[in-house]
Specification:
alpha+beta; four-stranded antiparallel beta sheet; 3 helices; 4 strands; about 45% helix; flat
Length: about 110
């Protein structure tokens, strides 16, 4: 089994970034999610958040890419919310499943 492919969410809005290891190369889908969330945040929150995310996510061909997109999108939104609430990270490690039900560590940067 391979070691996986790393994606990175950079720090933003004063909130830390994180590194996430995926079972497949999901960097492009993850980055698309982050960019779409930032676009939504920058454009006076045009449209419903859930509708914007679902419409773009459903264009991706594979379940693991859709999951990476969701994680990227929601992580960027999380950073913005936490910057306003001044909340910090509670845990050091998260996990995400790959398409075979195995869990991979997500290590905060």
């Amino acid at each position: 089994m391979s070691k996986g492919v790393m994606t990175y969410l950079p720090p933003h809005d004063g909130h830390p970034g994180m590194e996430i290891t995926w079972a497949a190369d999901c960097r492009e889908a993850f980055d698309q999610g982050v960019k779409l969330a930032q676009t939504w945040l920058d454009n006076a929150r045009s449209g419903w958040l859930w509708a914007v995310m679902i419409a773009e996510r459903d264009l991706l061909p594979c379940a693991i890419e859709r999951r990476a997109f969701e994680v990227g999108f929601l992580s960027r939104i999380h950073q913005r919310i936490c910057s306003h609430l001044r909340c910090g990270e509670q845990a050091d490690i998260y996990t995400a499943g790959d398409c075979f039900g195995q869990r991979k560590p997500l290590t905060l940067a």
